[in-house]
Amino acid sequence: MVELRIETHRREELVNITERIARIVTTSGIQNGILVIQSPHTTLGLTANENADPAVVRDLLGHLRTLVPPDAPFQHQERNSDSHIKVSLVGPSLSLIIHQGQVMLGTWQGIFACEFDGPRQRRLWIQIVGQ
């Protein structure tokens, strides 16, 4: 297992980690297998999504904010219930295929850590299973 540390700078943001993950895969020497990325945080999710047009990131964050507004009447007293719900919607992990030493992503896809309660120092756990 590899631990990847990232720093976020805003309460809500998507941090592009595509290149950092690709380097981890290359360094592993695994040619074919499965890459699993896991967030151990209840307010940091993961997604693979469009990496070409930054408007998609803004749209995703904006619509999640509309769907789960931070000022809704939540019972949780830490004032971050919206963050927990957003991670439940996005998901805390990704499983991706490794083929011929490359993470298999679509032409426009990138890998993003989805911060919903920042800014913070975060960790991601990466496990590669393969040959």
Automatic annotation (TrEMBL):
Pfam families: YjbQ (PF01894). It comes from the Bacteria. InterPro entries: UPF0047_YjbQ-like (IPR001602), YjbQ-like_sf (IPR035917). Signal peptide: none annotated. Transmembrane segments: none annotated. NCBIfam families: TIGR00149_YjbQ. Belongs to the UPF0047 family. This is YjbQ family protein.
